[in-house]
Amino acid sequence: MWVQLILLCFTLLSPAFFLPGAHGVSYTKDNKISDCEGSSGGFQWKMPFIKVNDKNYYIGHFFKANWYKSSQYCRYHGLQLASIETKEENTILERYISEIGLGNEHFWTSGTDQAEEGVFYWFGTGKPVGYTNWNAGEPNNFRYENGEEEHCLELWNRDGKGLKWNDTPCSFETYFICELI
Ligand SMILES: [Ca+2]
Ligand SMILES: [Ca+2]
Question: Where is the C-type lectin domain (predicted)?
């Protein structure tokens, strides 16, 4: 029993593991990193969600992926790439990411202007971006030598002032943030 539990916990934490959220396993709705737990009738998993009011965010930091693969990963698990609609949401995500030692990494959100250049919306919800936290000079739609421009919204601590918003090429591979639908 305990050997099985330990093996399952190990699997849960491995990079290749796909969260079982779309398959009937319940999620916790708190902001703690929880351990695996067993119960008399089987296993009761507690997933690491960060709760901000009615939203539950999941930080994808076991592997890096481009914006499309990140979105696919979220959707596969019954989630979607994150929207950030208030300063409170932004602040709590930033604080949490810093606390787990990843404050200098990049993180995808669902923000994009692929539909209309310069007009950002949250792909996860379809809503236009309202609250913003762009870094100075962003979004700049920088054009690279291969012709690719910047159409996807990441969080990035570019200049030591915290996780600000930046538009970057959607092909860039990095960590990501999902939210529970
Ligand atoms: Ca753009
Ligand atoms: Ca940019």
Answer: 52-179
| 15 belongs to a structural domain | no
The domain of 72 spans 55-180
How many angstroms is it from 177 CA to the middle of ligand 1?
Answer: 20
Q: How far, in Å, is the centroid of ligand 1 from the Cα of 167? A: 7
pTM of the predicted model, to two decimals?
A: 0.78
Distance CA 172, CA 76 (A): 20
Q: How do residues 86-133 score in pLDDT, each as one tens digit?
A: 999 999 999 999 999 999 999 999 999 999 999 999 999 999 999 999
Residue 127 has a pLDDT of 97
Q: Are 47 and 19 in contact (CB under 8 A)?
A: yes
Ligand 2 centre from 9 Cα, in Å?
39
**What residue ranges in the chain does DSSP mark as E strands?**
37-39, 42-44, 50-52, 55-65, 79-81, 106-112, 121-122, 152-156, 164-168, 174-180
For residue 143, report the distance from its CA to the centre of ligand 2, in Å.
Answer: 9
**CATH value at residue 152:** 3.10.100.10
Q: Tell me if 3 is assigned to some domain.
A: no
